[in-house]
Design the sequence.
């Protein structure tokens, strides 16, 4: 069985993927915000385990639209009233971080499904014994039943 890698193995092709020179240099605050959002979501949903329970998160497109609508509402409010306070600005940025996380999650899943990318290291497609609570197992069973 051939091992799938995220990046091409050809050295010339690998130079097209400037993870540091493009992503880090163009979007440092956004990437830090997404990482922080991911950490807090991990604490909330997995007790801090570095895993992504994909079966609990299947509505990325709808979530993206909701986060975008919330962002637009928040921006419009600040344009009509007063500039945001420090706390309000932090909330606006957190909403943008949640939007970016969902967009990255959707993109990752599409790359895996249609572009041959390997499954993300932290992704879990189904519960694993010992990692999931009884409540999570019931929630998964409900999701699976609704898909039938």
Sequence:
């Amino acid at each position: 069985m051939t091992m799938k890698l995220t990046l091409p193995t050809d050295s010339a092709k690998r130079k097209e993927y400037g993870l540091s020179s493009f992503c880090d240099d163009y979007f440092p605050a956004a990437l830090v915000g997404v990482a922080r959002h991911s950490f807090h979501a991990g604490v909330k949903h997995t007790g801090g385990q570095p895993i992504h329970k994909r079966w609990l998160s299947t509505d990325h497109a709808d979530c993206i639209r909701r986060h975008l609508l919330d962002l637009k509402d928040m921006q419009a409010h600040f344009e009509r009233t007063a500039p945001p306070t420090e706390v309000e600005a932090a909330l606006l940025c957190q909403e943008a971080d949640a939007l970016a996380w969902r967009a990255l999650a959707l993109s990752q899943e599409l790359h895996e499904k249609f572009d041959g990318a390997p499954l993300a290291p932290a992704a879990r497609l189904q519960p694993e014994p010992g990692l999931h609570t009884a409540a999570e197992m019931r929630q998964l069973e409900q999701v699976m039943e609704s898909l039938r």
Summary: The chain has one domain: 21-147.
